[in-house]
Every structure is written in structure tokens, then in C-alpha cells.
Amino acid sequence: MKAVLITIGDEILSGNTIDTNSNFIASQLKEIGIPVVQIFTVADTLDSIRKTLETAHQLGDIIITTGGLGPTKDDKTKTAFAEFFNDKLVLDDPTFEHLRKIFIKRNREHLLEINRNQAVVLSKATIFQNENGSAPCQMIQENGKITICLPGVPYEVKPLIKDKIIPFLKHQLSLHYIESQIISVVNFPESLLALKIEDWELALPKNISLSYLPIGNRVKLRLTATGNHLDELKSQLKIEAEKLKPLIGEKVISWNGNEIQEILKEILIQKKLTLSSAESCTGGELARLITSVSGSSKYFLGGIIPYDYHQKISILGVSEKTISEKTVVSAEVAQEMSLGGQKLFKTDISIATTGVSGPNSDEFNNEIGTVFYSIRVKNFEKTNRLFLPHLERNDFANFVSQRVLQDLIEMIIQEEH
Amino acid sequence: MKAVLITIGDEILSGNTIDTNSNFIASQLKEIGIPVVQIFTVADTLDSIRKTLETAHQLGDIIITTGGLGPTKDDKTKTAFAEFFNDKLVLDDPTFEHLRKIFIKRNREHLLEINRNQAVVLSKATIFQNENGSAPCQMIQENGKITICLPGVPYEVKPLIKDKIIPFLKHQLSLHYIESQIISVVNFPESLLALKIEDWELALPKNISLSYLPIGNRVKLRLTATGNHLDELKSQLKIEAEKLKPLIGEKVISWNGNEIQEILKEILIQKKLTLSSAESCTGGELARLITSVSGSSKYFLGGIIPYDYHQKISILGVSEKTISEKTVVSAEVAQEMSLGGQKLFKTDISIATTGVSGPNSDEFNNEIGTVFYSIRVKNFEKTNRLFLPHLERNDFANFVSQRVLQDLIEMIIQEEH
């Protein structure tokens, strides 16, 4: 059982919008053991949609399209589907009724007529109503293939996939199991790591595949096992992970966690430690990353972004003398920021960043890409410097934030020994 | 001249990583007038890469691949290229020398031998050295087509595209011009807007295309003009935008800006206003969005994330009585937070958010998806409530932050009248 995704929309091809739907759909399908074998991103034209539907039906058993269902002139998906399936478009009464309810709820009943077209669907289609928008999800089953047509707005797509499509597919298909485990290795370059575990990799059972996902100076090793018995897969993965311990154990910060902020959550909750942030050059990204995890309020008490340097002095108590002697972008200021943050929020751990993210240099003429960060775990403090002149502003903030959290995790783990 | 992008990598297909490279490359190509007509995301296998190269060469004149160039076993791109172009792979001395320099700079000379394979390239290829990683960029020109093979790491891809590929393409091809303008309309549903400007849209010159990009309750109208004379395109767009003024002028918050944070920058600098944020449920996203714009330190003085409610009291001076009577997620707490933020950071404008982003309810049993936000512009204050139960945690933070900035812009613009 293989899936193919088709993203329809000029806004993706023009580089205006990042396609996040494919990522979400692929990860959801993966969880029920359906691999996505290809993703197409195509223009909102009849011809390209129809042709891609043809190719996709050769490659996969489940075809999912997103986008091109809006009420405006540039949306062609439904017509292309009608042509491809040799079907006609008809007004669907239950969908129109559903639309009416949504519009009443939003006090937009006057818009109903204009949106009537949204209730026009393929006559062969099974309809899944969209609770968060006006275009329904349509599904056609023909010749052993399932074709699903979704709107393009991510917050409409997510609940449709999660609450309607995935349960439907699970019910409809007899699926085999897929189980994966992500092992996070730090301070071990990918090429050297590959060499170190080469023999282990070559000896992996045939139903287990390995992939390397480098991110910053962390490498995620993803082991994916497929088979008919879930318990068997779990114990297989456990055995293989066990074999890695003598080889790379000391460089592993997590044996089964995906995002660094999720690994952090595990450790902080387990050790009952509280955390705060004081960030300048990361501009909120560090706190955003930490709070992107549900339940983070259990350990993250707060953050401050003293963007202007006067705020560093007045709120965090950084000394004016340190700033004038060392400039704002210095190890000393980072240290005083983390100290001030620890006091302000009364937390066990405090992390602080200061740097120049560019593209313009700062008022002290510090070199673009320079960052100092300070990590304080109770009475221990550690300062590091990074130099990242090649990173764009947003990548810079994200890279630094990931690194700070990773270093924090390493620092906590090392303290154990 | 059309471009086709090919993203190679199982980490994208598995939903582990979001493909941001395609977005960046497409937007850069668009600026020099080369439209991307299709994007393929394919597995890291010889067969799928080779087949996709074939299809891509039928669809476009410029084919750009990213990914699959790492030193580990799961990377097959180069071999697929060699088969497709009937070429052989050879060790390239200048590339090896470049690699050596990079490894010395990083104190990783001992890794050079393992990475020797990275200096093995197609014998026909022109090489663009990669300053930020070990896999070079390769280019082959054959039968009037240009095929470019890039690594997959985004911060390696960006400078290669921006500093090497785009200048090369500009020089190599005689390109026509493309000019676009984005008009941001608020509080005007897409379908109603489409109806309102229908006649105008139908009368647009043939070389100008229009697309609708809805985001929250803002709709971005993108006008794209192509032609041989840049000045002509600019004046054409100016004329068409002028015609829109009587139709939708009062609902437009920006006549030429893309992201809400960029529009905000324009307005705040023009009006010499300073800004601070006090955010709870958005967890740093609001500050991140604001500071994602270069030059934001000119008006954004700082932000606070009093995540735990005790911090709202101790740092922002929110009254304990208000919290116990109204709970943390209330209009009153939002108002006191924005007041506290305005005082703490001494800014003209202060914005504050408080809400429950889920998936778990808060300690006061407030309904998941409830948000209150307060905007203070000098002595004026405005509080709004949103209810977004359907949004996932990260989308929720982003949606709320976008909306707050948009409302702030509207509030500043309205004050003028």
C-alpha cells in the first residue's frame, strides 16, 4: 500500500508559501504504515492536475491532493477531478446544509450564495465535511485505488486528515505495522558516525531500515521496522538499539526522541527542574521552541527578550560597565543575562543568548554571525561562542536555539556522571 | 524558460522534515523571471531519481535537484546523475583541495579521507564550491538544458543559490523581467472580495496575473507582471493598483508588502513608534515574528513571556485579585499584561496575549482555543477575543500572533482618520 501526495497551488510554486501539508500528511500516513513514495507540487491548471492524477495513479494506491478548492477563479481542482474520473459535478444538499450552519455560526449568512459553489461535488464522491472551512473533503474509490481531495489551508487539512481520513483508512485497509525509533547522537560528525556503526548497519535485519538526519551538530539515526506483529517490531528495535550502546552510547543524548524540545521535556520533568530564558539575538525563538511542546508550562516558567540593550540593564541587571567594556555581544554579557534571568524568574536553569544575526552589523560593530550563549544549571555555568555568518536571520535564530537546548541537555546528562 | 525542482530525500517523504529548500529556490528564481512549473519530491533511490530526471527534462529547461549528496550509504543522487547523463564519476582535485581547507578550518582534518567521496563529481560537470558544507554543487549543460545538483542542507543551499546559481543564470540567459506587487486586504472574505473586484480582474492586461493568498482574515492579492521593460511593468502595476483604490481602498492595510511583520516595520518606523510584547499563550512566537525582520531593533525594545502565572503578577504587576476573579485567560488579565509591558519596557505600544493553546486545558478549566489579546497604542487600548479550538499548538501561536500584528496595524491606520 503506497501513497502519493499532490500539492496544487501556484502560491507554492512561486515560493510564496511553504508547503507544510505534505509534511503533516506524510507523517500521519507513516504512523499507520503507509509510506509516501512521491510528492508532486503542480500548477493550478486543468492540464497539469489531470496529468499528475494519471501519473500518481500509476505510482500509488492512495492519492491525496491538497489545494485548489477555493471559491475564486484560480482554483481548478474539482473540474480536473471530474474530467479524470469521467464524472459530473452536482450540488450536494448535506454539504450545502453544513455550509449554511458554518456561515450562520460565523454571522456570514449573506455570503452563502457566493459560496454555493463550494457545495458542488463529484457525483461519485464520498464526502467528509470540513468543520473549519467551506470546501469539503471528497473521496473516490475506483479500481482498487483511493483518491482523496482536500482543501489547501493547513488548519483545515490537519483535522480532516487526523480525525476523518486516517480513521477511515485504518478501518478500510488491513494494514501492517510500522514502528520507528530515533536515536540522537551529538558531537559525532555524520561520516565518522557512519564508519563507526558500519558493521552494525550491514547486519541489520532486512525489515529494518536506517536513515541519517543531521541537524546542527546532532545526528538523528532513524530506525524503521515494518512487519505484521507490533510487539515483535518493538523488541527487534530494542535489541538493535542495545547493540549500539557500546559503540556510541556516550554520544547519545536520547534513545527515542525526535525534537530536541521533546527530549528536553522528558529530562526536565524527570529531574524536576525549572527553566527560564533570556534571549536577545534569538528574539523569542528559544522560548517558542521550548513552548511548542504541550505541557511545557510544567517546567518553563518564563522568558524575557531584552532586545534593546537598556532593557538588559534595567530588567536583567546587566552592568553598564560590562557592556561598555565588552560590548553587548560578549561572553560576559551572556553570563550576566543568564544570572539576571535566573533571579527574575526564580528557576533552577537559565539560558541566555546575545549575538548579531545580521544582515546589518550592530552598533558596536561586532561581526555578523557572532553569538555568545550562557547556560546556568543551579550554580554551574557554561558559556559558548558560535560563529554563523552564513545563516539567514530566521535560520540563525533557530540554529542557535536548537544548539542551546542541546548543550543544556548534554550539561544535565554529564552532571549525572 | 521554465524550471523544475526535484527534492530528493526519504526524510521529506516520511514527514520528518519540512522541505523549505523548494520554497527558497522558487522565490529566488521568480525574482529573475523564471517560473517553477513543477516540484517533485522523490525517494533516495537510483530508479526514482533517474526516472524523475527524465520527466523533469520534458517539463522544464532548468532542472534543480537538492539532497542525496551526503557521505552515508543512503545517498544515491550522484550515481543516478552519472547514469542519466551517461557520464562517469571522477575525483576532482580543486574540490578535494577546497574540502581540505574547510576541514582544516574546522579542525577536522582527520575526517578528510572519509569525506574524499564528496570530491568525486561528474566528469562533465561545472563545479560551484560549497562554502558551508562538504558536498559541492554540480552543473551540467546539455541539449539546451541546465541541470543543477545541490546538497540538501538549507543553510548550504541558500548561499549557493543566491551567490552562485542566480548570478550564473542571470549572466547565461537573456531573461525577461518579472515584477510583482502584493496588496493586503483585511476583513474582506475572499469570495466577497473576488466578487467586488471581478470586473477589474477581467480587464487586467494579458501580461498581468492575479492570485489570492488568504492568511487568517487577511487576503493577499498578488499581481505579477512579466515583460521586457522593467519600468513599463512598474508603471502598469501602479495603474492597476490605483484602479483598486475606490473599490477596496479602505480595507487595504498595505499596497506593497508581503509579510505582516514587514508591513508593521514600515508603519512603526514611519511613525516613530516603539513596541514591546507580553505574551503567554503565544510563547515567544509574537516576538519571534516581530524580530524576524532585519532592523526590528529600531522599534522593538523587548518582550516578556510570563508563562507561569506567578510571573504575570511579580514581573508585570497583574493583580492577584483579577486572576482569582477572572482567571488568567480573561480580557482583564490581557489588559493588565499590556499595561505592565508598556511600563516595563517604556514603549509607545504594548501588545499582550493570554489563552489556552491545548491540547490540555489549563488549571482554571478555560476552554481550549480561547485567547484574549490586548493592544495598547499610547493611551488607547483595545481587547479582542479569539476562539481557535481547531488549531494545533504551533499554528495557534502563529495565527494569534499574525492576528495581533494585523489588528495593531489597523488600529494605527484608523487613528489617522
Automatic annotation (TrEMBL), chains A, B:
CDD domains, A to Z: cinA
Residue ranges constituting the MoaB/Mog domain according to the UniProt record: 4-172
Pfam name, any one: CinA
Gene3D superfamilies in the record: CinA-like (3.90.950.20), MoaB/Mog-like domain (3.40.980.10)
PANTHER family registered for this protein in UniProt: NICOTINAMIDE-NUCLEOTIDE AMIDOHYDROLASE PNCC, NMN AMIDOHYDROLASE-LIKE PROTEIN YFAY
UniProt family annotation: Belongs to the CinA family.
Official protein name in the record: CinA-like protein
Lineage, opening ranks: Bacteria, Pseudomonadati, Bacteroidota, Flavobacteriia, Flavobacteriales
